[in-house]
Amino acid sequence: MSNQKNRTGWKLEHSYSKLPSFFYSTQKPVPVKSPEPVIYNQELAQELGLKLDKNDLDVFAGNKLPEGSVPLSMAYAGHQFGYFTILGDGRAVLLGEQITPEGKRFDIQLKGSGRTPYSRGGDGRAVLGPMLREYIISEAMHSMKIPTTRSLAVVTTGEPVYRESVKAGAVLTRVASSHIRVGTFEFAAKKGTKDDVRALADYTIARHFPSLQNDENRYVLLLKEVVQAQASLIALWLLTGFIHGVMNTDNMAISGETIDYGPCAFMDIYDPDTVFSSIDYHGRYAYQRQPKMAVWNLARFSETLLPLLSDHVDQAVQIAKEAIDEFHVLFHEHWMSGMRKKLGLFQEEDQDQALFDDLLNILRENKADYTNTFRALTIERPEDIRLNCSAFDNWYTHWDNRRSNQTPTKDKAMQMMKNANPSVIPRNHRVEDALVAAEDKNDLSIMEKLLHVLKDPYAYSPDQEEYAQLPRPSSCIYRTYCGT
Ligand code: AMP
Ligand code: MG
Questions:
Q1: Which of 238, 424, 432, 433 could form a disulfide with 464 if both were Cys (CB 3.0 to 4.6 A apart)?
Q2: Neighbouring residues of the ion ligand 2, judged by CB less than 5 Å
Q3: Ligand 1 close to Cβ of residue 174 (< 6 A)
């Protein structure tokens, strides 16, 4: 047994199952008919300390359990588009927490692994296209240094999945620093006692913010840490043009990682009101509303903590309010400093906000591409035809003077810009092409090439050039579907 453990590298622990039992259900993945590996993330496997060969990949279909696994599905709740619901892993199981050779702890979760006690009306399964989509975009986010869950493997199940049409079933293996969500706290507060919320809060602190463990103010500090992590994360989303699409409280991880890649997408043309998700009828989660929605979610989180913040309700509410009000300050600082990097500016100046707003207004008015404008500025070729206007010329001259008058050399500024402006993003039309080829033609080559160029988005290598091309006008109105 121990030889086997050493060979495969599985080193699973189960700290989550020490929480009160109503936080989860013991649940095995449901085996599938004929699993076939589609993609396996060797590099991530190595970081996790796994040394698997072809015969070991059945664990990613749920047909075999890895050594030491005691699988479970997590209970949680969530506000979905503003409405409270009891949810839970309806199609996922946590195989365990892998302890890496560096001593880090990561949840290993199968998504699409069959029905669970939380499945409600669902079939517990997932479709190949959306699982590959999560793989591509989560790995691209990681390469862009945006905190995110990651993707270790996708396998097909050999079983049909019935959606609007019959699709190929698949299972994704997701790796996360944890799957504790705002919705997990909402579940504890709704269904449990103050002691259950405290147990979850203490567990979360031990796992994610261990330095707070012995602090008598640890619960308010937990809230502040989560506010800080979300402010930083959402600023990174906005700086890269990312739209999550379904920022329900069950899809907000306490760790500050981006989680649950459903209808998410990157914006092409800069428009702050952009919405891609077909189910976001009222634009609740539009690009520019994401900070506001994060605050809304954090308010729901803080409500669950109120009994732990003070014995006096008014005081608890005041403490929570002050912590959450900090979001806007922190978000603004992160966003401003990110924009300075994108534009190669080392020093802060009073007019920075106006400089950034002016550029964004020009992009919006001229329907210019967000990523490509910064890319063009980075390689000194602002040749997007839509920016052929005097407003942009004036802005450019002003910015160029500002950048040239700094102490560090222009070379250093250009280098900073290169590290802050991705030369390539997973553009919707490219992702679609890759998924169509994989799903309809069993051709993985387009996806593999896309994954290759996305590996180092700041490389500015010649093979990335073609990936900067915009979609044909006919494919501009892009819709994403939860169609999972
Ligand atoms: P999501 O929109 O992916 O965040 O999922 C919202 C909730 O629906 C979660 O509790 C999921 O586990 C559940 N869910 C989504 N798809 C399915 C499915 N096919 N079968 C069962 N539960 C599902
Ligand atoms: Mg979800």
A1: 424
A2: 251, 260
A3: no
- Position 410 confidence tier, pLDDT thresholds 50, 70, 90: confident
Cα angle 6, 7, 11; round to 5: 45
Whether 250 is catalytic:
yes
Q: Given pLDDT bands bounded at 50, 70 and 90, which one contains residue 3?
A: very low
Q: How far is the CA of 114 from the centre of ligand 1 (A)?
A: 11
Q: Is the CB of 334 under 6 A from ligand 1?
A: no
- Do 179 and 108 touch, CB atoms closer than 8 A? no
CA distance 24 to 72: 6
Q: Which two tokens stand for residue 383?
A: 């040749």
Least confident of 24-28, 47-51, 68-72, 385-389: 385-389
Number of neighbours of residue 400 by Cβ within 10 angstroms: 14
pLDDT band at 281 (very low <50, low <70, confident <90, very high): confident
Q: How far is the CA of 184 from the centre of ligand 1 (A)?
A: 15
Q: Are 75 and 17 in contact, with CB atoms under 8 Å apart? A: no
* Ligand 1 proximity of 91 Cβ (cutoff 6 Å): yes
Q: How far does the centroid of ligand 1 lie from the alpha carbon of residue 90, in Å?
A: 5
CA atoms of 287 and 241, how far apart (whole Å) = 8
E strands, 166-282, in order: 166-176, 242-243, 265-266
**91 contacts: CB under 8 Å, gap ≥ 6:** 111, 112, 113, 114, 115, 116, 119, 122, 123, 124, 125, 126
Q: Say how many Å lie between the CA of residue 80 and the centre of ligand 2.
A: 10
Nearest-CA residue for atom 7 of ligand 1: 87
Nearest CA to ligand 1 atom 23: 90
Between vectors from CA 182 to CA 179 and to CA 186, what angle results, nearest 5°? 115
pLDDT band at 409; cut points 50, 70, 90: confident
The pLDDT tens digits for 417-471 are 999 999 999 999 999 999 999 999 999 999 999 999 999 999 999 999 999 888 8
Q: Which atom of ligand 1 is nearest to the CA of 125?
A: 19
User: Is the CB of 67 inside a 6 Å radius of any atom of ligand 1?
Assistant: no
Q: How much is the pTM?
A: 0.96
The phi and psi torsions of 220 (rounded to 5 degrees) equal: -70, -35
Mean per-residue pLDDT, 49-63: 93
Q: Which ligand is nearest to the CA of 122?
A: 1
Q: How many CB atoms are located within 10 Å of the residue 105 CB?
A: 14
Per-residue pLDDT at 480 exceeds 80: no
Q: Highest mean pLDDT range out of 23-27, 276-280, 374-378?
A: 23-27
